[in-house]
From TrEMBL:
InterPro entries: ArgE/DapE (IPR010182), Bact_exopeptidase_dim_dom (IPR036264), Peptidase_M20 (IPR002933), Peptidase_M20_dimer (IPR011650), Peptidase_M20A (IPR050072). It comes from Psychrobacillus vulpis. Belongs to the peptidase M20A family. This is Acetylornithine deacetylase. Its cofactor is Co(2+); Zn(2+). Its EC number is 3.5.1.16. Residues 210-307 form the Peptidase M20 dimerisation domain.
Amino acid sequence: MKKEIENRISKAVDERKEELLQLLADLVSFPTVSPPARNTGEVQNYIANFLEVHQFETDSWDVFPKDPNVVGIKRGTDGLHYHSLIINGHIDVAEVGDESAWTVPVFKLTNKDGFVFGRGTSDMKGAVAATLFAAKLLKELNIELKGDLQIQSVIGEEAGEAGTLSCLEKGYTADFALVVDGSNRQIHGQGGVITGWITIKSKEVFHDAMRMKMLHAGGLIKGASAIEKMMKIIAGLQDLERHWAVTKQYPGFAPGTTTINPAVIEGGRHAAFIADECRLWVTVHFYPNETYESVTAEIEEHLNQVAMSDLWLRENPLQYRWGGKSMIEERGEIFPALKMDAEQAAVQLLAECHQQIDKNPVIIGMSKSVTDAGWLGAAGIPTVIYGPGKLEEAHSVDEKLNIEELLSFTKTLLLFISQWCNTKK
Ligand SMILES: [Zn+2]
């Protein structure tokens, strides 16, 4: 039975390759670059129409103005007793930068030497095209599903705008979720990332002329430069980063992956004043057995101790603001980590489907990057990342995707859907 379905799927995908590539060309032609974002309305409309034509119920709502999410659901014939599936992909693409560095058009698909080129081919319109094409072929190959199939085309991933979180907040769920972001068709979990702002703020503002009185004997002014005090905090963060590198580890990650990057610093108001405020923007990486709540608590506890050893900081406590729902609107983001259970039934089935199509066993490991998969996992949905495209290609000049890889992915996806959504709970 499985072999018979596999043959039908493989034949159809190979024969109709041009249709799949045209679909991808259509998606690439919408310049959904983020940031600046607020430009996905048209492509999301295209996707919603496509899904409706192929008998999906759709829902669409603005996560931000002009950036709507789309969810399409194909109801199974016995959703109560059979497994449901979410396939999640983001429709925004990375910034282009200097277009003149490209040797191919950025938003027009170029087919050359076995690859398709264009912004988003690898990250991740190739995978979204494959998902839509799979949705179309289900009907045409008469593959009936007993469980529900849900396709989420989300916005905002590139700028830490959690379109996926918005789907979860609306109540969209399933028994298993596949985030088809580029993983070179390996099955991945991921570490997490949170950004945060650490602020030092003086209760008083002093003119530059007061500096000698706050530094020297007998000056009698208890003041400080927030910029200079931040140097102690940065040194404290480096201590903690080193301590984590030595003491923390997790299978699948190089030791020391848990970095704390002081990415941006802002502070001071004018050369005629003592800096009364300094803000540090940090990016923190953590392992799948940690949460953003636990790591930020560790950072605050450590830095508060550092601050307690400083006579001025003791009275001008550190302020923290962690995470955020958008790098554009709030200058903050969260990508929860994703633990992955290789023994889980859906993961095993996905591995089998991969091997059946690819003839090689799938590699199971940890992503070197972060995706929206962490949100689905954090919501209690067993989730993995599995998609075509290499990490090096994401965000690159002359971004490209191997066509054979795209075809294999489409076949594996169709085979997996046809099996998982027809497996009893
Ligand atoms: Zn991506």
